[in-house]
Specification:
The chain is mainly beta. It is built from 2 helices and 12 strands. Strands 1-2-3-4 form a 4-stranded antiparallel sheet, covered by helices on one side. A 4-stranded antiparallel sheet has the order 5-6-7-8, with no helix packed on it. The chain has a 4-stranded antiparallel sheet with strand order 9-10-11-12, with no helix packed on it. β11 (181-188) and β12 (191-192) form a beta hairpin. The longest helix is centred in the N-terminal third of the chain and has 14 residues, at 2-15. The N and C termini lie far apart (37 Å).
Length: 193
């Protein structure tokens, strides 16, 4: 619960109460006792999103990106109106195969027209090497994808973004003898440098 309150507070400060309430709405059925002024709760199945995972989402202005664990993973980009209504702008499916779970979208960042999507279980060159994908949010067109040091059991793709700096983590796997690491990139438009 503490983690979800921190998420709520961060979103409330960034986007206002309406947007923050949407993000915590999925937790309202678990006996939340704090008075968080829940404004609305949206049924994602009405938008064709059947396995919505509220902890795999990101907000930017009036857009919400959510991860759906279908196929190899799917990211839905939704627009939120002033009245709190949702409309689907686009759906982006994994361009690559994943193994063991639909990880495309297990990390999502948005900033203006920059859309970054992580996929820790992607199999591009090795099992579970992982990838990070950069898209133009306005068109849905993939600009690039990368993993600087592809190797098995790397789980590359968990990310965070702030002030034009992208941090991408690789989880590693002790059994396979792979290390965890974080790689930092300065973003120049859609290009990581």
């Amino acid at each position: 619960i503490e983690q979800h309150i921190r998420i709520y507070t961060k979103m409330k400060n960034k986007l206002g109460l309406m947007m923050a309430a949407i993000a915590i709405a999925g937790y309202s059925q678990v006996g939340f006792s704090q008075n968080l002024n829940l404004v609305s709760r949206t049924d994602m199945t009405k938008l064709g999103i059947n396995s919505f995972k509220p902890h795999y989402l990101t907000l930017d202005d009036n857009r919400l990106a959510v991860h759906e664990t279908t196929g190899n993973g799917v990211v839905h980009i939704l627009k939120i109106s002033e009245s709190g209504e949702f409309s689907k702008l686009r759906t982006i499916s994994s361009p690559d195969q994943t193994r063991d779970w639909a990880s495309f979208g297990d990390s999502v960042i948005m900033d203006g027209n920059l859309l970054g999507i992580g996929s820790s279980h992607t199999v591009k060159h090795n099992p579970h090497d992982g990838r990070f994908y950069i898209y133009d949010l306005s068109t849905g067109v993939k600009k690039t994808d990368f993993n600087p040091d592809s190797h098995a059991a790397q789980y590359f793709g968990y990310a965070d973004y702030s002030n034009k700096v992208l941090a991408v983590q690789e989880g590693g796997n002790q059994t396979w003898g792979t290390d965890a690491a974080v790689t930092f990139y300065r973003m120049d438009g859609f290009k990581p440098t």
